[in-house]
Design goal:
The protein is an alpha/beta fold. The protein is built from eight helices and seven strands. Helices cover about 45% and strands about 15% of the residues.
């Protein structure tokens, strides 16, 4: 039943489609947004539209970026032969905050999850393989999340890359099983990186 009128109901419906936002949270957000001054809601709407229009994937690492290639891939101080494979741009940002990694990245945009209908073809794995065929790499660090999906993704990628003669390592398990990298503290991430093992 439409208790609030069409525009508010539609706003609640759209907000509830966001990840982690249920019906009650969407309702709370909707009422907060309509109570804001017009200039604040205009600024929010413009920020969303600007991000949608101007953010794209880096043609090298598949990270989100405004410029192509991204700042990390364009940095001559980075080692392009050392590639860390992560699931999500937020995972890359978590490693960047440690200031310990000086290679480049490859962002998969997810993990293999048959239960959620995500297969290898839904990820940026083919782009990683093309990248390895076009450029030499000394080591691939598989830094997918230490959960069932992340482990399955790491094993799948490892089996594809090993025949290419590239060293494949996995981050150490100082990172707790079932955790998401974006929420792990910098010390734990640094230890996991330095304690990585060859697969």
């Amino acid at each position: 039943m439409d208790y609030y009128g069409g525009p508010i109901t539609k706003l609640i419906e759209e907000l509830s489609k966001l990840p982690g936002i249920g019906g009650k949270s969407a309702q709370r957000l909707a009422f907060h947004l309509i109570s804001l001054p017009q200039e604040k809601t205009d600024a929010l709407a413009e920020a969303i539209l600007n991000a949608k229009r101007n953010v794209r994937y880096c043609s090298v690492c598949c990270n989100v970026t405004e410029s192509d290639p991204c700042a990390v891939c364009n940095n001559v101080k980075r080692d392009p032969k050392l590639i860390m494979v992560v699931e999500d741009p937020r995972d890359m940002a978590a490693y960047e905050r440690t200031k310990e990694f000086h290679g480049t990245y490859h962002v998969l945009h997810g993990a293999i999850s048959p239960m959620n209908g995500v297969g290898p073809g839904d990820l940026k794995i083919a782009a990683l393989l093309r990248r390895l065929q076009e450029n030499e790499a000394d080591e691939i660090i598989l830094a997918t999340n230490p959960n069932v999906e992340g482990e399955a993704t790491a094993m799948y990628i490892s089996k594809l890359i090993k025949p290419l003669g590239v060293k494949v390592t996995r981050i150490a398990h100082g990172v707790p099983i079932g955790g998401d990298l974006e929420y792990i503290d910098q010390v734990t991430l640094s230890r996991a990186l330095s304690g990585r093992m060859e697969m």
